[in-house]
Amino acid sequence: MKADAASLLEKARHAYGQRAWADAFELLQATDETTALAPEDLERLMWSAGMLDRDPDIFAAAERLFNTHAEAGRDDQAAYWAFFHGFRLMALREEGRGMAWLQRAQRHAEGFGRECAAQGFLIMLSAHKELGSGNDQAAAALAAQSLGIGERCCDLDLIAFSRCYLGRALLRQGRIGEGIVSLDEAMLPVVDGKLSPVVTGLIYCNLIDACRQIYAFDRSREWTDAMSNWCGSQPQLVQFNGLCRLHRAEIMEVNGAWQDAVAEARRATSSLARNVSNETTAGAAYQEAEIHRLRGEFAAAEELYRTASRLGLEPQPGMALLRLVQGRAEQAAATMRRVLATTGTPLGRARLLPALVEIMIAAGAIDEAREAALELQTTADRFATDILVAMASQARGEIELNDGDAAVALGHFRTALATWQRAGAPYLEARLRVLAGQACRALGDEDSAELEFDAARAVFTALGAAPDRARVTALTASDKARPHGLTRREIEVLGLVATGKTNRLIASDLGLSEKTVDRHLSNIFDKLAVSSRAAATAYAFQNGLL
């Protein structure tokens, strides 16, 4: 019997070393039924259960580890496993049981009589809570404290975890360089395979999420690829696999591989061990909805946005942008006002502000669009990542174009366009080309406008972005039908000029500044080759513009 158990255990340890989690779990469990596992093999059983997302088995193994060490008087180890038991329960939102286990961990850590890794993990959990509440400075201080304990106790898991949280806190304070360095340091033992399996996956997820929040696309791609390779090397992996696929789907969308993004989002959901309403399922639904919206498949997009909402994810700004393309700008504006009112963090708001600018301009709420563009610029100045700067430049350009200063607008569009080209984001690049084309048209440069519109149309056609392609077609058809070159806003201003209203009254009627009306009127004079309001009015009536 003992020989059989020894053989099983040898096979189990080999499977564990090969990261064949299901095989390792079954063999360790079979060994345990014959001869109770020693603590080091019980740890292997628990980590294997963790990689298979088998919570009952995780809790059973963690409790046995806690009891084994507590009975032996090893309070530091008892505290360690009590922490991981409570940590997992808290992740599952079982806060009552989770807090009980964390308090147990605290009690045993204090009973140990000197510093131990469990104390650092408990402090790190406090840093996590401070991050969640937006207290980034306190989170950074706590993460630095837990890092110090990890270094003194030589606990690689704690060191990497603490550096990860420290990096996130620094990034959110706008200390981008320091934050990236801390995150990169956290990844070194991950890449070298020196951390426990579940902690490895958690570090990957935290780092990728941090890079996404500050729009560090290059880092996001790099670490998403690394995580994909890590997941791919473990065919029996269940935990983290769905989240990895979701990150890959997001990258694929930006890269223009839309069909692949849809397939990967669906695989993210199908790879889950349990059919539960979790963040990965909701995120996958939202990601697929975005592709359907961009393709003009509105019914499918609507259904998936609603699915994401039922699963607890706010389906914005996607659903508001869907309403906008459906011609329901006022509804889109109301939704975005509501969402922004409950979003406090600068980076969280930055994700919504570009859509807010577009929607508010369409809804005629120019002052709100201008405020949103200014806020986005403030955030970009604070965090100073290329993508945020590009987003702010585009928003400022949209405001300037609406205000009639096409030359300044075009400069902003060119700045943003260069960033999206470097980022390899064809759809976003094409959208900017449409805006640049409109600016060129407003400046009377029809050849450049046609070049921009043609380039954008080719991308939209290749991607299957039907609504955007239709918009470009409408813009070019509109150009041919309006040889005078006046924009819709300029025709609107000219109509009010024809009624005899002053620039101040026109500004009041249209919700513009008087300076903007002056600029529109100057553009009208230039395009019509006239020098007075009376001459412009006469041209308008003679050519059927009014």
From TrEMBL:
Top-rank taxon: Bacteria
HTH luxR-type domain span: 479-544
Protein name: Helix-turn-helix transcriptional regulator
Gene3D superfamilies linked: Tetratricopeptide repeat domain (1.25.40.10), Winged helix-like DNA-binding domain superfamily/Winged helix DNA-binding domain (1.10.10.10)
Short name of one Pfam family: GerE
Record SUPFAM superfamilies: C-terminal effector domain of the bipartite response regulators, TPR-like
UniProt record, GO biological process: regulation of DNA-templated transcription
InterPro entries in the cross-refs: Sig_transdc_resp-reg_C-effctor, TPR-like_helical_dom_sf, Tscrpt_reg_LuxR_C, WalR-like, WH-like_DNA-bd_sf
MF (Gene Ontology): DNA binding
Transmembrane helix recorded as keyword: no
Keywords: DNA-binding
